[in-house]
Specification:
globular, single chain, 24 helices, 7-stranded antiparallel β-sheet
Length: about 575
């Protein structure tokens, strides 16, 4: 049986006495939990220096170690191996003598990589060792300058730049030379590939980040960032200018933050991008939020909520007036949930108004007002004006201060249904937060219909889902001691990792919800300023499922993993 690089590495480290057993065990546990290279984890955790690791490996594997940062590679030789293969195996050719091709690689025991490269090149492969960082830098240097090769990083059968059509872009823009470069075919194609790749891979955000020697592109997929592309530094200004022009921003402004948006046609759908530009040490960092209006037509049922909290939520929506508050951190899906509600309530008989900072999704039949604090249009000022417009339903993007909270609460007493968000850790905390802000308890108690806390939880990838063994002691340490988890025959699942889920084991996310429908007894508790713990205890006794219970129910149903449950929820 062929010895794996991991097994050989463990054997070498134990023999060398360079790494303590506890550091090795810790790194192995991290690798088991999060994946990644064992050597890289050891270096990151301080168990061994990268130089010492590579020197000992070179000696034990009898493979030369080279410093790629000081080695000049002939570009024609580097391109003997296609970029896709080079990145897949972290490998790059450094010299060619006769029929022998010398390649630098992190894992010289990877016979699959060597066999593939042998078949592709028809050369005899001679491996040498190089550090992962040096290899990555070399691959970016020798492959990164050609747009066609960049496009090979995406699946061209699925991703084609022609799929992207920018809507409403101005034809004549008076800009500097860099703007002209940004409109050249290669730069337009690169930006199109970045946008197209993000949509194909279901990214919610695109991060374009200038570094010291390169421009890096990362996608946020299912809540986690993944690096997908590194461009040469020389293309940085043109790429940033291209996105600024699409967003109708000032490309000459490099010292102040900027916000914009643009819209594209993609596969018959209109997709909006919200653009934020922030000056950093190495240029302007751009984050694009992907806004797909079609996701708002799903309805609450398809957001993944369990039936019990969903029933509570729907009951609150039947009330003609009052306040519905949704809490949770940034990125927990609050906005999508509120928009889905508004979309369902949007009928010709209702006057629905939203106050947003900024307007994310443009919805037909709804009056949407973007906030502009610079001219005095704050949530509080906007809410005062909206109340004179005979609204039936008002969505306030966020309650940030006493004035906004006070006006919103009093508006419910005048017969309006108010939807809004707050930043608290759980649902009961939203009630006490309003009182802490300074709103009178009797107003809070008489106005609030429902408070709910929301999180997004990653789902196990259906393509690589398989049974997983979880030791009893691990379940006990997590506080899972009842027979739902410990009974004989109970099955747990995880994702093995496949191409569909980018080796993460997760594909897509579902919402979990902690919802409290405020009744008369709870109103009395609010008016006497009961603590959030007292409110929570009462709500649980009357059927509320906490976020942790929601998450555990999804774990039992096989929708997610224990690691995901513990990472996004806290103990009750």
């Amino acid at each position: 049986m062929v010895e794996s690089f991991k097994d050989k590495l463990i054997e070498v480290l134990i023999k060398s006495d360079l790494v303590k057993q506890k550091d090795l065990d810790k790194a192995l546990e991290t690798q088991k939990r999060s994946g990644g290279s064992l050597g890289k984890i050891l270096v990151e955790q301080g168990g061994i220096s990268q130089k010492a690791l590579m020197v000992i490996l070179s000696q034990q594997l009898n493979t030369p170690l080279i410093d790629l940062s000081k080695y000049k590679i002939n570009r024609d030789i580097a391109r003997i191996i296609p970029e896709k293969v080079a990145r897949q195996y972290s490998i790059i050719p450094i010299s060619k003598i006769g029929s022998v091709l010398t390649v630098a690689m992190v894992d010289p025991l990877n016979i699959f990589a060597i066999d593939d490269v042998t078949i592709i090149t028809n050369f005899k492969i001679e491996p040498v060792l190089a550090t992962e960082n040096d290899l990555k830098e070399a691959i970016n240097t020798y492959y990164g300058s050609q747009v066609q090769e960049i496009s090979e990083m995406f699946d061209e059968a699925e991703v084609g730049p022609s799929d992207i059509e920018v809507l409403e872009e101005e034809e004549h823009i008076d800009v500097s030379e860099i703007a002209e470069i940004s409109k050249s075919a290669p730069i337009v194609k690169v930006v199109s590939l970045i946008l197209n790749g993000a949509l194909k891979k279901r990214a919610s955000d695109i991060h374009i980040e200038p570094a010291e020697k390169a421009l890096k592109v990362r996608y946020r997929i299912d809540g986690s960032l993944h690096e997908v592309l590194t461009l040469p530094k020389k293309n940085q200004n043109a790429v940033i200018a291209r996105i600024k022009i699409m967003s109708r921003l000032d490309i000459t402004e490099t010292r102040a933050p900027q916000d914009g948006r643009f819209r594209i046609n993609f596969e018959g759908k209109q997709i909006d991008f919200r653009v934020s530009v922030l000056p950093i040490a190495f240029g302007g960092k751009i984050v694009l939020r992907v806004l797909d209006k079609s996701s708002l037509n799903m309805g609450l049922e398809r957001l993944g909520f369990l039936s019990q909290p969903l029933k509570t939520f729907k009951e609150a929506l039947t009330k003609p007036f009052g306040m519905i508050l949704l809490t949770g951190p940034t990125g927990s899906g609050k906005t999508t949930t509120l928009y889905s509600i508004i979309n369902q309530l949007n009928t010709p008989e209702r006057n629905i108004v939203t106050l947003e900072d900024p307007v994310e999704y443009e919805l037909e039949g709804i009056t949407q007002i973007p906030m502009n604090p610079e001219i005095g249009l704050t949530f509080a000022a906007g809410l005062k004006s909206v109340l004179r417009q005979s609204p039936d339903i008002i969505m306030v993007g966020e309650i940030r201060d006493l004035e906004t909270a006070d006006i919103a609460v009093k508006a419910t007493l005048a017969g309006q249904l108010i939807l809004s968000t707050l930043h608290t850790n759980d649902a009961p905390g939203a009630i006490t937060r309003l009182i802490d802000m300074g709103v009178e308890p009797f107003l809070v108690g008489s106005s609030i219909v429902l408070v709910a806390a929301q999180r997004l939880m990653r789902k196990i990838c259906p393509s690589c889902k398989e049974e997983a063994e979880i030791p009893k002691n691990v379940l006990e340490r997590a506080g899972l001691k009842d027979e739902r988890f410990t009974a004989k025959g109970v099955k747990f699942y995880h994702g093995r990792g496949c191409q569909k889920c980018n080796k993460t084991g997760y594909y897509g996310r579902i919402g979990i919800l902690e919802a409290i429908l405020v009744d008369d007894q709870m109103r009395d508790m609010v008016m006497r300023k009961a603590s959030s713990d007292e409110i929570k205890e009462y709500a649980i006794k009357h059927g509320m499922m906490t976020l942790r219970e929601n998450a555990l129910e999804n774990f039992i149903l096989g929708n997610t993993t224990l690691e995901e449950v513990l990472s996004i929820t806290s103990e009750d």
